[in-house]
Amino acid sequence: MSDQDYLKDISEIKNLMNRSSRFISLSGLSGIFAGVYAILGAAIAYIYLFPKPGEFLTLHSWNFKLLLALLASVAILSVVTAYLLTTQKAKKNNEKIWDATTRRLLINFLIPLVTGGIYIIIKLNSQHYGLSASLMLIFYGLALVNASKYTIGNVKYLGYAEIIIGLLCAALPGYGLWFWLLGFGLFHIIYGSIMYIKERKS
After folding, report:
1. Residues 143, 110: contact at Cβ < 8 Å?
2. In its keyword annotation, does this UniProt entry include Transmembrane (predicted)?
3. In the chain, helix, strand, coil percent, each to 5?
4. Dihedral angle sign, alpha carbons of residues 158, 159, 162, 168
5. Whole-model pTM above 0.70?
6. How far apart are CA 195 and CA 147, in angstroms?
7. Burial of 44 per CB tally in 10 Å (0-12, 13-18, 19+)
8. Of 186, 190, 191, nearest in space to 155 by CA
9. Bridge partners for 23 per DSSP
């Protein structure tokens, strides 16, 4: 066996080990749907729930409670869609949806995300509303980057983009809805479309 054959075998073994330790069934379509849900949610919030000029959104108002319900609905729809499409893809590829890699992926994703969620609730409870959108984007980006080591793909780049847009949102108060729309809507659609095209080619 030549040196080139040895190198090829080592490369294949390394690739197999890498794939076995990473979750590979994330669906690109789920990213597109998550982005569409976020844009629809932002449009509903802008038209029906956001305060008019001269008005304020307070913690105990009905509009604020409906806004939280809308955010929760967008998150739940995104998670359910991601679960269904990812399960479908895993079955098609004859892969397990739940194993040690999936557990590590979820733990690493949820730690920054839950920490950020609790921090935002604490700030809202003390009537600090202004940085909510930027904090959501930053902690979500940190969660993606933290979980990316257990996925095949470019999730970390989506995470970096969310962190950057979150910091810009913090630096430019008053445009939270638009940065939220850009980060959770457009970025997800772009990322999901890139992943979907790669899936179709492979």
Report:
1. yes
2. yes
3. 80, 0, 20
4. negative
5. yes
6. 17
7. middle
8. 191
9. 151
Question: In the numeric block, which tokens belong to residue 53?
Answer: 């000029």
What six digits make up the tokens of 166?
Answer: 């979150």
- Pick from 109, 125, 201: which is nearest to 158 by CA? 109
SS3 26: coil
Distance CA(168)–CA(7), nearest Å, equals 46
Q: What's the pLDDT tens digit per position in 76-104?
A: 999 999 889 988 888 887 777 778 888 88
Beta carbons of 29 and 196 less than 8 angstroms apart: yes
Convert the pLDDT of each residue in 120-177 to its tens digit. 988 887 877 778 899 999 999 999 999 988 887 688 999 999 999 999 999 998 898 8
